[in-house]
Amino acid sequence: MSLTSKIAAASKRVGGRLATDKTNKEQGYQYLSADAILGAGGQALAEEGVVVFPSVIDWAVNQFVTDKGKTRYDARVNYVFTVACDEEARDFVWVGLGSDYTVPDKAYYKAVTSGHKYFVAKLLNVGAFNEDGEHEDLADDIGAGITRPVMEAAPKCPKCGGPMWDNREGKKNPKAPDYKCKNKACDGAIWQGAAPAPAAQPEPAPSQTTIASQSPPAGPMTPDQLRPWLLEAAARFANDAPLPDGWRKAITGHLNKLTGSDTGRHVILSWAFGVESSNDLTNGQWHTLYTWLDIRKADDGKYYPSDLAAAEIKLAIAAVAAEPVPF
Questions:
Q1: 140 and 266 share a domain?
Q2: Residue 252: pLDDT above 90?
Q3: Which residues contact 48 (CB under 8 A, 6 or more apart)?
Q4: Cα–Cα distance, 165 to 306 (Å, whole number)
Q5: Alpha carbon distance 159, 168 (integer Å)
Q6: What mean pLDDT, rounded, does the chain reach?
Q7: How far apart are CA 308 and CA 313, in angstroms?
Q8: Confidence class of residue 139 from pLDDT cuts 50, 70 and 90?
């Protein structure tokens, strides 16, 4: 049998035989739930040897605030459903919509569920359902208001085409990328609105009264750019809460790995902050190292510093080695 014939057979089994199974508590109407449609529809397709592969290709959540101050989150999920049996397969572009009045996550999952539910329902010609009971009634919100994006899918990696980490919300290092490839073997990254990196310019060393205010370049900083940035950050973080001992130990360990030894770490700390040991670092300097290294957990379960910090440490070590030895 062809794929079309198998879908028709599954549709004949469930299309006109499903009955409404839930009641909307607010408006009193009955509807056919996602559980019923996906359960019965999925079983009927499976019995015909048909498999549905859902793939979310893009999504976004917007916050809508009415003139009266009421907030609603509206989600849109763009799907590609692949329906396959044996060697035959077809792709269908689909969309799921969902809304919630509390948090954006719920709106997203409602959109995921409704998209899947309605696709299977339409594929199998299920007709016994009213408005989607998984959604809130939006009639009260019709009117003027302001919409702004609050969540959206991360773009694909520009180098390998794979998924990327979204680092925008909680990004503490202003020079870190907004998106970074999840594949540690790929250095793909995206800086939103990034301007070309400026040419390296010598800068005066900042003090407690004169702090460098320039924005860091999009790529790795040169040593002449990095050291003022580290000093400025240390002054800015001086009054932050003490960094936990666990993070201090992790930073020390990663600096040893990046510089090759305890001695290499001491050289970098002396070059950056004028201290001979980690024990001499101020709280602001610890927070600066934490922000600079941007240590994160990777897919293999291990923690790694950012590629930018690793590249900048190599440049700094080379610069220190090239400095003339004082007599």
A1: no
A2: yes
A3: 1, 6, 7, 9, 10, 85
A4: 12
A5: 20
A6: 79
A7: 9
A8: very low
| Domain span at 116 | 3-152
Most confidently modeled range among 12-26, 42-56, 228-242, 295-309: 42-56
86 and 210, same domain (yes or no): no
The model's pTM: 0.46
Reported as a single tens digit per residue, the pLDDT across 161-189 is: 777 777 776 666 777 787 888 776 777 88
DSSP 207: -
For residue 274, is it within any domain?
Answer: yes
Residues 147 and 211 in one domain: no
Residue-wise pLDDT tens digits, 205-235 = 333 333 333 444 446 788 898 999 899 888 8
Query: Does residue 228 share a domain with residue 102?
Result: no
CB 38 within 8 A of CB 120: yes
Of 296, 304, 168, 312, nearest to 228 (Cα)? 312
* Residue 56, token pair as written in the block: 């979310």
d(CA 215, CA 234): 15
Nearest to 40 by CA among 56, 21, 53, 23: 21
b or e along 19-41 (b: 16 or more beta carbons within 10 Å of the residue's beta carbon)?
Answer: eeebeeeeeeeebbbbebbbebb
